[in-house]
Amino acid sequence: MVVGSHGMSDGKAANGLGNSPGGCWFARATETNNWRRRSLRLIPKGSHVTNKGDSPQNTLSMSSKKHTSNQSKQYKRHTVTAALPYANGPVHIGHLAGVYIPADIYVRYLRLKGEDVLYICGSDEHGVPITIKARQENITPQQVVDKYHKQIKDSFERFGISFDVYSRTSAKVHHETAAEFFKTLYDKGVFTEKETEQYYDEANKQFLADRYITGVCPHCDYERAYGDQCENCGTSLSPTELGNPRSMLSGNKPVMKKTRHWYLPLDQYEPMLREWILESHKDDWKPNVYGQCKSWIDQGLQPRAVTRDLDWGVKLPIEGTEGKVLYVWFDAPIGYISATREWGETHGKDWEKYWKSPDSKLVHFIGKDNIVFHCIIFPVMLNAEGSYVMPDNVPANEFLNLEGDKISTSRNWAVWLHEYLEEFPGKEDVLRYVLTAAAPETKDNDFTWKDFQARNNNELLAIFGNFVNRTLVLTHKYFDGQVPEAGALSPADREALEQLLAFPDTIGQSLDNYRFREALAGLIGLARLGNRYLTEAEPWKVFKNDPERVKTVLNICLQFCGSLAVLSEPFLPHTAQKLCSMLNLSNLTWRDGGRPDLMPDKHSINKVELLFEKVEDLQVHEQVNKLYQAKMDNQDETEMSPLKEMVSFEDFAKMDIRTGTILSAERVPKTKKLLKVTVDIGLEERTAVAGIAHVFHPDEIIGRSVLFMANLKPKKIKGIESHGMLLMGQTKDGEMTFVQPDKDIENGSVIG
Ligand SMILES: [Zn+2]
Question: Is the pTM of this model over 0.85?
Answer without folding.
Answer: no
